[in-house]
């Protein structure tokens, strides 16, 4: 969450929103805390109830926190130990590539030392950790499509193989399939991205809304309805496909172009 917060504050700054000294001091305080705790295991994006682990996504978001602070200091001439922050950023990046990537399978993994996949790995290019066409990203996208989908839609992770403290089995998580749309689009696979996007649109109910999950067997919506976590990535994917460019979380999204 530290990475999410600092990413959002950086995006606000890049979007031209006014800033204050107090806001920057808060950001420094958050990174100061993270410097001493980024190596701690946690429960990950999905708040798993099982043992804490070194989730790859969590480490990537720690990298995001350091990266955004470095960029804020460099681009906006804000005060802080930027050399130390750069070293932290580079250390985290190197560790994730060493421990969060399975070179034998050609894919990032859910947590250090595991073989499982996780939909959150699709966010690696979104936050700028690696380019969307990097072979390690492309390999991860392909692995998730092979091993972590049902009827072409993306699961969060394989619940039956994860010690998450809950019974096995759930529907496909709709936000994750929109992340796949973005990952495919970023890798230059626009037709595949567009096809999946339109399949997702077809899952909307009679008033155009989505739930949290979809049951590919019963062909019905599951979970919280309507779910903002499904609609927000829908908007982001639509804008990317409309504008024809890959979006990164630290860059303002271009508004739709007005037809001439």
Describe the structure.
There is one protein chain. This protein is mainly α and 260 residues long. It has 2 domains: 1-99, no CATH class; 108-250, no CATH class. Helix content is 47%, strand content 6%. It has 8 helices and 7 strands; from the N terminus they run ααααββαβββααββα. Strand 1 (101-102) and strand 2 (107-108) form a beta hairpin. Helix 3 runs antiparallel to helix 4. The mean pLDDT is 93.
Question: Would you kindly provide a brief summary of this structure?
Answer:
The chain is mostly helical. It contains 8 helices and 7 strands, in the order ααααββαβββααββα. The model has no long low-confidence stretch (mean pLDDT 93).
Topology:
Layout: H1 2-14, H2 21-35, H3 56-76, H4 82-99, E1 101-102, E2 107-108, H5 135-147, E3 149-150, E4 153-154, E5 172-173, H6 174-186, H7 190-201, E6 213-215, E7 220-222, H8 228-243
Antiparallel strand pairs: 1-2, 3-4, 5-6, 6-7
Helix pairs in contact: 1-3, 2-3, 3-4, 6-7, 6-8, 7-8
What sort of overall outline do the alpha carbons produce when their principal axes are compared?
globular
- The assigned structural class equals mainly alpha
Total number of domains: 2
Helix-strand pattern: HHHHEEHEEEHHEEH
Instruction: Pick out the low-confidence regions.
Output: none
Count of separate DSSP helical elements? 8
Across the major sheet, the strand order is 5-6-7
Q: Report the portion of residues in β strands.
A: 5-15%
Main sheet?
Answer: 3 strands, antiparallel
Cα radius of gyration in angstroms: 19 Å
Tell me roughly what share of residues is in helical segments: 40-55%
Q: Mean pLDDT, nearest integer?
A: 93
User: Quick one: how many beta strands?
Assistant: 7
Instruction: Give the terminus-to-terminus CA distance.
Output: 41 Å
């Amino acid at each position: 969450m530290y990475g999410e917060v600092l990413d959002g504050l950086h995006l606000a700054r890049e979007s031209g929103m006014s800033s204050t000294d107090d806001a920057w001091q808060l950001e420094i305080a958050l990174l100061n805390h993270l410097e001493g705790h980024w190596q701690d295991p946690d429960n990950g994006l999905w708040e798993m109830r099982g043992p804490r682990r070194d989730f790859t996504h969590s480490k990537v978001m720690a990298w995001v926190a350091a990266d955004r602070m470095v960029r804020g200091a460099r681009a906006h001439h804000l005060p802080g130990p930027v050399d130390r922050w750069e070293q932290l950023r580079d250390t985290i990046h190197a560790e994730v590539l060493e421990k969060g990537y399975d070179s034998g399978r050609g894919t990032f993994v859910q947590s250090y030392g595991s073989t499982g996949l996780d939909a959150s790995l699709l966010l690696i290019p979104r936050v700028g950790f690696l380019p969307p066409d990097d072979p390690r990203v492309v390999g991860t996208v392909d692995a998730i499509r092979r091993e972590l989908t049902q009827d072409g839609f993306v699961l969060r992770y394989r619940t039956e193989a994860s010690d998450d403290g809950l019974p096995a089995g759930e529907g496909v998580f709709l936000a994750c399939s929109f992340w796949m749309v973005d990952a495919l689009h970023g890798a230059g696979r626009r037709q595949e991205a567009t096809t999946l996007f339109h399949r997702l649109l077809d899952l909307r109910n009679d008033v155009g809304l989505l739930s949290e999950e979809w049951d590919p067997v019963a062909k019905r919506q599951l979970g919280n309805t309507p779910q903002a976590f499904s609609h927000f990535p829908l908007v982001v994917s639509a804008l990317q496909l409309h504008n024809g460019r890959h979006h990164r979380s630290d860059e303002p999204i271009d508004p739709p172009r007005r037809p001439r």
